[in-house]
Write a sequence for this structure.
């Protein structure tokens, strides 16, 4: 019969993939009870509905079954209480100060004034050199899915002259400011959004500003906004490799980018400029998403190629970046976006995309999703 210590040392081999530490050190093992050859384990997850729970469960099963005398492992998944999260947060914060984040490690040379990350754990910019390929839609879908999976999510619409994020989420009215900063608007499911359109007197007022002013505004939308504690902040970039994306990469502590394209050689040609830009600036790329790849005929369900099919997957491979998947052209998206109800949209493709992005963020290492209670001052 294995002892408690033996079982605990086995459990210490199980690592929470997102936090990157073992579940024993994280204090996630709440109960460990051996009856005969059956062991009952209770695990307190840090995030409600943690999508990586299955991985943790499989690993626990595997390591405990390696011990002689154990034939069955029953695992109950619960979540940590606020006090437990606070306690864990304090410990992680201590470790965090000793850790170097990938964002910093991969950041620009000293001397460039990067803004502080504050309570935001992961900043992902969505870009494409090409206009109209679906950056905004992909940003919105990533946010919606991450939120659905239980994360705290924000969106910074860095498209200052063509902002559309408020519209797709059905948000309007000017945000007010508290003593920390401008308070973002919150969508129905709780995504925090800041977009230039929300700050204008009327949404159809054109923004006619030159580059330096736009740069200043992007910095403000990040720094002067009270984002609070977020697991993910998604930044929707305007098309091109001009001033706005450069400001975002030079000023904001961006951890990684998602690159969007449509399956066209022409699009890919321009998208390669973005890939090269991020490589030059040392911003890690999570991968390439192919949007509007195909459409299902509403009458006969036949798959229709939207563009003359080009091999984006091979292009990604030759550019040495991951292919994150294909998203269909779906009229439901246009309908919901026009109604400001994009949060009602879900599809296996977008769910899969989020899974891949999250797992790439884990692969990039150093970017850890931590429980949110660690910032107790607010
Ligand atoms: N997968 C999709 N299915 C259906 N419609 C889509 C899809 N992706 C994008 N669209 C539509 O295509 C149009 C362009 O998409 P979107 O605004 O997201 O592109 P963008 O790359 O952000 O454009 P811009 O370069 O102007 O910022 C929008 O009307 C959007 O609703
Ligand atoms: Mg856009």
């Amino acid at each position: 019969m294995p002892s408690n210590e033996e079982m605990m040392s086995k459990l210490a081999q199980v690592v929470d993939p997102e936090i990157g530490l073992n579940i024993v050190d994280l204090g996630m093992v709440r109960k460990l009870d051996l009856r005969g050859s059956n062991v009952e384990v209770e695990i307190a997850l840090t995030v409600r509905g943690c999508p990586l729970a299955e991985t943790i469960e499989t690993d626990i099963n595997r390591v405990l079954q390696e011990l002689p005398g154990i034939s069955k492992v029953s695992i109950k998944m619960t979540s940590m209480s606020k006090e437990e999260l606070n306690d864990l947060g304090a410990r992680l914060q201590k470790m965090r100060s000793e850790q170097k984040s990938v964002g910093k490690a991969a950041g620009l040379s000293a001397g460039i004034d990067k803004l502080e990350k504050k309570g935001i754990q992961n900043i992902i910019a969505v870009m494409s050199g090409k206009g109209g390929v679906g950056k905004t839609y992909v940003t919105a879908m990533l946010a919606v899915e991450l939120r659905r999976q239980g994360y705290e999510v924000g969106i910074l619409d860095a498209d200052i002259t063509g902002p559309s994020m408020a519209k797709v989420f059905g948000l309007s009215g000017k945000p007010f400011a508290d003593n920390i900063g401008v308070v973002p608007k919150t969508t129905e499911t709780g995504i925090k959004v800041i977009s230039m359109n929300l700050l204008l007197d009327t949404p159809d007022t054109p923004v006619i500003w030159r580059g330096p002013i736009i740069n200043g505004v992007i910095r403000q939308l990040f720094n002067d906004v009270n984002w609070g504690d977020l697991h993910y902040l998604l930044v929707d970039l305007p098309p091109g490799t001009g001033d706005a994306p450069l400001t975002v990469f030079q000023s904001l502590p961006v951890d990684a980018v998602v690159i969007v394209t449509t399956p066209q050689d022409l699009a890919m040609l321009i998208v390669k400029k973005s890939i090269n830009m991020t490589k030059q600036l040392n911003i890690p790329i999570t991968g390439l998403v192919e949007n509007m790849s195909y459409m299902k005929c509403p009458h006969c369900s036949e798959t229709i190629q939207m563009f003359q099919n080009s091999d984006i997957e091979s292009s990604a491979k030759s550019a040495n970046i991951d292919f994150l998947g294909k998203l269909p052209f779906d009229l439901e998206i246009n309908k919901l976006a026009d109604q400001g109800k994009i949060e009602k949209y879900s599809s296996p493709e977008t769910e899969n995309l989020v899974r891949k992005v999250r797992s790439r963020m884990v692969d990039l290492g150093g970017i850890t999703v931590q429980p949110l209670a660690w910032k107790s001052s607010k």
Remarks:
- Confidence is low (pLDDT under 50) at residues 99-112.
- The longest strand covers residues 38-45.
- The two ends are 48 Å apart (CA to CA).
